[in-house]
Design a protein that fits this description.
Nuclear Transport Factor 2, Chain: A; four-stranded antiparallel β-sheet; binds zinc ion; NTF2-like_dom_sf; YchJ-like_M; YchJ-like middle NTF2-like domain-containing protein; SEC_C_motif
Length: about 160
């Protein structure tokens, strides 16, 4: 747990045109006060857990059969990523499975890049788990679209190099 928890939720959830507060959005999942009800909620809460470095939450919500040796220690070794924003591209759910495609933007040395992935989720005993994902090529915003770093500027006037 970090002590400096953000006020706005890192996942970027908007409710009725207002950015959701962390305490009203992903925090209850991180504290195990409630369970994500959809694959997208789990995906968002996992992104927020990456940002806030809550590694045990990431392990708990990653299906045990798919961890492939991943541990909180390994996550802690690689937690210096400077995350910028989460962009949900699509999310769908069947009864006990779901798929969420997203881009998670981060700042590289002097550039921005994204993890573009379609993640698979499974519902077991009323809990959603991340199982695995398929990585794709990052799709950058168009020049006149909003920058992914949440500056409020157009991409061409901001992080476009
Ligand atoms: Zn959130
Ligand atoms: Zn930017």
């Amino acid at each position: 747990m970090t002590t400096d928890l953000p006020t706005l939720c890192p996942c970027g959830q908007i409710n009725h045109n207002t950015a959701a507060l962390y305490n009203d959005c992903c925090a209850p999942y991180h504290r195990a006060d409630s369970l994500p009800q959809t694959p997208e909620q789990l995906m968002r809460s996992r992104y927020s857990a990456f940002v806030t470095k809550q590694h045990s939450y990431l392990i708990q919500t990653h299906h045990a059969d798919h961890l492939n040796g991943l541990t909180t220690a390994l996550l802690a070794e690689n937690d210096e990523t400077q995350w910028l924003s989460l962009q949900i591209i699509s999310s769908k759910r069947q009864e006990n499975t779901g798929e969420v495609c997203f881009q998670a933007w981060y700042r590289d040395t002097d550039d921005i890049d994204a993890i573009h992935e379609c993640s698979q989720f499974v519902l077991e005993n009323d809990k959603w788990f991340y199982t695995h994902g398929e990585m794709k090529e990052a799709v950058y915003p168009k020049r006149n679209e909003a920058c992914v770093c949440n500056s409020g500027k157009k991409y061409k006037q901001c992080c476009l190099k």
